[in-house]
Write a structure and sequence with these properties.
alpha+beta, four-stranded antiparallel β-sheet, four-stranded mixed β-sheet, 10 helices, formylglycine-generating oxidase activity, Gliding motility lipoprotein GldK, signal
C-alpha cells in the first residue's frame, strides 16, 4: 500500500512537471461559474438593516427591539408557493410511490422488462422493474455501487438506493391496466370502496409520504470528535418521512360556527385555485417541499453532465424574511412604506381584515392569487397579507437580545415553535407590519399559513447598501 501511495505521488509530480504552469502555483482550474437565477425567484442583495419594530410596540409584546443586523445575498420566490406548484410535489410523490410498489412487486415476482404476457401480449409489471434490475447492462461505476451499496438496502428499507424506471409512463386508465399485478398495486393506493362516495375513487393521501435526508451541521460542528472520528458523522445525518398532502380540513377546524365547506372541498385540487397560495401545510411539510425542489433541480443538472449542483432550496430565516419584506426601505412599517394600509386613492395595498367582521373591504374574502397587489422594492408580492409565511427560525421572545448581528437565526431543533411572518387574509393590520413576530407549532397546519422558499446566492458579492 505504501509503495502504491509513493508511486501515485511520484506520478502526480511527473504530471505536474509536464503541465503548462511552469512550476508556478496557479491553483486548481475549474469551470467558470455562472450564477443562474432560479425560475420564479428574484435576487435580494445582501446588506444591513434595522431589524425589529419600526414604531411603538402597541401590543406591548416587547419581543422585537430594534437591532442592526446584516444578511447575505439570496434568491427568494417572488410569490408564495401556489397550489399548482405544491400539487406538482404531491403528484411527483404519488408517481414515485406507485413506481416503487410496481418495482418491488416485479422484483418479488422475478419479472424483467420486455417479458410480455400482459393483455394482448403487451406490457407487464416487469416493464416497471427497477432500472438496475439487470446489472450486466450497467456501467462499471453503477455496477460497483449496485453490488456494494444499492442492492444491500437498510434494515428499515431493503430497497434503499434502488433506481426507479421513469422512462415508461404510468397507465392511469383502469381499462388499460396491463395485468392483474398492476391492478393490485394501483388498487392499494386508493381508499376502500366503502369509504368512497359520489361514485368517486379517492387516493389514500395518508400513503403519500416523502422521505429525505439532511445533515444536522449545527450539531456536527459542535461535536469535538467529529473531525477525528469520521464514524460519528453518520449520527448527524437525519432521515425524515413526512405525509405531504395539505390538511384541507383546516378550513373548517380553524373557524367555529362558520360555513367554509366549499374551500375545504375545492381550494387545493381545483384548477380555479391553481395560482392561489397553498395553505394547510405545516412547517415540516414546507421543509419537505424544499428538499424535493432541490432534488428535482439537481436530478435535472445531473442528467446534463458537467453542470454543478445548486445550493439547496430552504425556508428563509426570520431575519432574511424581514429584510426581504422591507424591500430596501429602512424603518418602514409595511413593505410599501406606510404608515397606512391604503394608497393615496383609498385602495387597500394588501389582503387582510380591514374592519371588525369585514373581510371583503379590501376586495377579497379569503386568499387572492399569489401575484396580486403591487410588489415591493425587491419585486416580491404579498410579503404582507394574503397568507402568513413559515420561516426556518424557532421562536424565542428574547431572541433579538442574543442572536448574532451577522445572518441572525435561532436554529433550535428542540423548540417546536416556529416563527410565522407577514400576517394573512384573516388578520388585522398589526400582523401585516414587517416587524411583527408571531409563531405556530411545527406540526400544525392552518388555513391562513403558507410559505415561500429561498436559495443562497453564489457569485460576485453585491449588497443593497
Amino acid at each position: 500500500m505504501k509503495k502504491f501511495i509513493a508511486f501515485a505521488a511520484f506520478l502526480s509530480l511527473l504530471i505536474s512537471c509536464g503541465s503548462n504552469d511552469k512550476g508556478e502555483l496557479v491553483g486548481v482550474k475549474g469551470k467558470k461559474w455562472h450564477p443562474e437565477k432560479p425560475y420564479g425567484m428574484t435576487l435580494v442583495p445582501g446588506g444591513s438593516f434595522i431589524m425589529g419594530k419600526s414604531d411603538d410596540d402597541l401590543a406591548n409584546i416587547d419581543d422585537a427591539p430594534a437591532k442592526t443586523v446584516t444578511v447575505r445575498s439570496f434568491y427568494m420566490d417572488e410569490t408564495e408557493i401556489t397550489n399548482s406548484e405544491y400539487r406538482e410535489f404531491v403528484e411527483w410523490t404519488k408517481d414515485s410511490i406507485i413506481r416503487m410498489r410496481l418495482a418491488i412487486l416485479a422484483d418479488e415476482l422475478g419479472q424483467k422488462p420486455g417479458g410480455g404476457g400482459g393483455k394482448k401480449g403487451g406490457a407487464t409489471i416487469g416493464d416497471y422493474a427497477f432500472a438496475d434490475a439487470d446489472p450486466e447492462k450497467m456501467s462499471a461505476y453503477d455496477k460497483y455501487m449496485y453490488e456494494n451499496y444499492y442492492s444491500v438496502g437498510t434494515d428499515e428499507d431493503p430497497y434503499a438506493g434502488r433506481k426507479l424506471n421513469r422512462k415508461i409512463g404510468l397507465i392511469k386508465d383502469p381499462q388499460k391496466y396491463p395485468d392483474e399485478y398492476y391492478v393490485e398495486v394501483m388498487d392499494s393506493m386508493y381508499l376502500p370502496a366503502a369509504e368512497s362516495y359520489n361514485g368517486l375513487r379517492t387516493v389514500d393521501v395518508s400513503k403519500l409520504k416523502f422521505r429525505y435526508t439532511w445533515m444536522d451541521i449545527q450539531s456536527a460542528a459542535k461535536d469535538k470528535n467529529t473531525g477525528t472520528n469520521r464514524s460519528k458523522r453518520s449520527k448527524y445525518i437525519k432521515t425524515e418521512q413526512v405525509e405531504i398532502y395539505p390538511d384541507t380540513t383546516t378550513w373548517i377546524k380553524d373557524f367555529a360556527y362558520s360555513y367554509n365547506e366549499p374551500m375545504h372541498n375545492d381550494y387545493f385540487w381545483h384548477q380555479a385555485y391553481g395560482d392561489y397560495p397553498v395553505v394547510g401545510v405545516s412547517w415540516k411539510q414546507a421543509k419537505a417541499f424544499c428538499a424535493w425542489r432541490t432534488l428535482k433541480k439537481n436530478a435535472y443538472l445531473k442528467s446534463k453532465k458537467g453542470r454543478d449542483q445548486i445550493n439547496s432550496f430552504r425556508l428563509p430565516t426570520e431575519a432574511e424574511w424581514e429584510y426581504a419584506a422591507r424591500g430596501g426601505l429602512q424603518s418602514a412599517s409595511y413593505p410599501w412604506g406606510g404608515p397606512y394600509a391604503k394608497n393615496d386613492r383609498g385602495c387597500f395595498l394588501a389582503n387582510f381584515k380591514p374592519n371588525r367582521g369585514d373581510y371583503a373591504a379590501d376586495g377579497a374574502l379569503y386568499t387572492v392569487e399569489a401575484k396580486s397587489y403591487d410588489p415591493n422594492g425587491y419585486n416580491l408580492y404579498n410579503m404582507s397579507g394574503n397568507v402568513a409565511e413559515w420561516t426556518d427560525s424557532s421562536y424565542d421572545a428574547a431572541a433579538y437580545e442574543y442572536v448574532s448581528t451577522m445572518n441572525p437565526n435561532v436554529p433550535d431543533a428542540s423548540n417546536k415553535r416556529k416563527v410565522v411572518r407577514g400576517g394573512s387574509w384573516k388578520d388585522v393590520s398589526y400582523y401585516l407590519k414587517v416587524g411583527t413576530r408571531d409563531f405556530e407549532y411545527a406540526d400544525t397546519a392552518r388555513s391562513y399559513i403558507g410559505f415561500r422558499t429561498v436559495q443562497d446566492y453564489m457569485g460576485t458579492q453585491n449588497t443593497g447598501n
